[in-house]
Amino acid sequence: MRLIILGPPGAGKGTQAARIAERLAIPAISTGDIFRSNIKNQTELGRKVEAILASGGYVPDEVTNEIVADRLTWDDAVNGFLLDGYPRTAGQVDALDTMLEDHGHQLDAVLELTVDEDAVVARLLKRAETEGRADDTEDVIRERQAIYRRETAPLAAHYEQAGLLVQVDGMGEVDEVTERILAALPQHA
């Protein structure tokens, strides 16, 4: 099964991606994790990404597309994957479509976790407090939510038009959300 998971910051995408991927025996592929790993290991890609992020920029689509294209060739992704944090732009959507077409594949579903923004803001503020992240103020968190709505809404609409979007209530206990996702998938697989 080839899946994407979308949702605003704090919706639980990373948690659910790991759980769903494990249940479906496919890898959860997070571009953020790949970037962080490369930065930590000081690879050529890591140094490039670190410099871009340090200057306040966004990692260009061509760099992100390249790492995803490479990751999708790994043996564990041959029979499927769950992408978390990719695609984020229309250019990345087009690149992913091309990658899949080149290998005779297509997406099975795009999961969108829907959440109550105020509840997510409260969750992120609590997480910032427990993890000691002073930069996660309410204003910063709300701005990230607004950026997500502006940048990702067109992607969700694109996938809805393609008949791939599966909206799942992301509120509640982790196990409840996982079960909702799994229950929604067979209709689209």
UniProtKB/TrEMBL annotation:
Enzyme nomenclature, EC number: 2.7.4.3
Gene Ontology cellular-component annotations: cytoplasm
GO BP annotations listed: AMP salvage
Gene Ontology terms for molecular function: AMP kinase activity; ATP binding
Ligand binding (ATP): 10-15, 127, 172
Region (NMP): 30-59
Keyword Hydrolase part of the UniProt annotation: no
Binding site residues for AMP: 31, 36, 57-59, 85-88, 92, 133, 144
Keywords, in A-Z order: ATP-binding, Cytoplasm, Kinase, Nucleotide biosynthesis, Nucleotide-binding, Transferase
UniProt catalytic activity: AMP + ATP = 2 ADP
Pathway note: Purine metabolism; AMP biosynthesis via salvage pathway; AMP from ADP: step 1/1
Source organism, top-level taxon: Bacteria
CDD domains documented for this protein: ADK
Gene3D superfamilies to which the protein is assigned, alphabetical: P-loop containing nucleotide triphosphate hydrolases
Record remark on domains: Consists of three domains, a large central CORE domain and two small peripheral domains, NMPbind and LID, which undergo movements during catalysis. The LID domain closes over the site of phosphoryl transfer upon ATP binding. Assembling and dissambling the active center during each catalytic cycle provides an effective means to prevent ATP hydrolysis.
Known partners and oligomeric status: Monomer.
Family, similarity comment: Belongs to the adenylate kinase family.
Functional description taken from the UniProt entry: Catalyzes the reversible transfer of the terminal phosphate group between ATP and AMP. Plays an important role in cellular energy homeostasis and in adenine nucleotide metabolism.
Protein name listed in UniProt: Adenylate kinase
